[in-house]
Design a protein that fits this description.
Radius of gyration: 22 Å
Family: Belongs to the Nudix hydrolase family.
Largest sheet: 7 strands, mixed
Low-confidence stretches: 233-242
GO molecular function: hydrolase activity
Protein name: NUDIX hydrolase
Mean pLDDT: 88
Helix content: 10-25%
CATH architecture of the largest domain: Alpha-Beta Complex
Number of strands: 9
Shape: elongated
Order of helices and strands: EEEEHEEEHHHEEH
Organism: Chloroflexus aurantiacus (strain ATCC 29366 / DSM 635 / J-10-fl)
Number of helices: 5
Number of domains: 2
Keywords: Hydrolase
CATH class of the largest domain: Alpha Beta
Strand content: 25-35%
Structural class: alpha+beta
CATH topology of the largest domain: Nucleoside Triphosphate Pyrophosphohydrolase
Length: 242
């Protein structure tokens, strides 16, 4: 009969790294893509801006730690988080060997109330093309990776809809895609593709403006988990279509 006794294990023989979580939060403010940053109050990188985050506790999951740190440092809560990547360069933190698990989220800034914590000097939204660089630690790298991932995910997820109110115009949706992608999209081509995707539901509501009233749409809740639609902007660009 096989011996099932546990093999002796001495954890003191191994060096243990610390683990942190960082949360990259994007929002659309004044029709421009922004990211939420905190200003560090203490060493290391005192005075520099950083992505919100901190060390995990031994009794919580990674996502629980990310939500706790996000709320403690910025006041942002009740957001959908998606794990982004793990950053573990040996010299990324001068305090210790620290591995960071990064998360990404999109929120409506007008639905959140941000506040400064005791750990930081300030918390503020910054346009992604006007950042206070260099950021602390390797956060420039993390933010660049998050922005790249966000842009790629627009081709096959409904992530951008988290920046919209319940009712919106297709023009508003197009503007969000343009801000995230960093390029102009052909209006007719965008309308055709977004309608063919079958993820919008026309409503009877109209928005009055200076010109003709604008039809309002909503996201189809029955398609919330559908990953099958693809906008294929990259293929269109290869073919020379806007």
């Amino acid at each position: 009969m096989q011996d099932e006794r546990p093999v002796p294990y001495d954890i003191s023989k191994y060096q243990l790294p610390a683990v942190t979580v960082d949360v990259v939060i994007f929002s659309l403010i004044n029709r421009t893509l922004h990211v939420l940053l905190v200003q560090r109050k203490r060493w290391p990188f005192e005075g520099r801006w950083a992505i919100p985050g901190g060390f995990i506790r031994l009794d919580e999951s990674l996502e629980e730690a990310a939500r706790r740190e996000l709320e403690e440092e910025t006041g942002v809560r009740d957001v959908y988080l998606e794990q982004l990547y793990t950053f573990g360069d040996v010299q990324r933190d001068p305090r210790h060997r620290v591995i960071s698990v990064a998360y990404i989220a999109l929120v409506r800034a007008d639905a959140q109330t941000i506040r400064v914590s005791a750990e930081n000097s300030d918390v503020r939204w910054f346009p992604v093309d006007h950042l206070p660089t260099p950021l602390a630690f390797d956060h420039d790298q993390i933010l660049a990776y998050a922005l790249s991932r966000l842009r790629s995910k627009l081709e096959y997820t409904t992530l951008a809809f988290q920046l919209l109110p319940e009712l919106f115009s297709i023009l508003e949706l197009k503007h969000i895609y343009e801000q995230i992608l960093g390029e102009k999209l052909d209006k007719g081509n965008f309308y055709r593709k977004i309608k063919e995707a079958g993820i919008l539901e026309e409503t009877p509501y109209m928005r009055e403006g200076r010109g003709r009233p604008t039809r309002l749409w909503r996201f189809r809740r029955d398609r919330s988990g559908d990953k099958q639609f693809v906008f294929r902007w990259r293929e269109d660009r290869r073919e020379g279509v806007s």
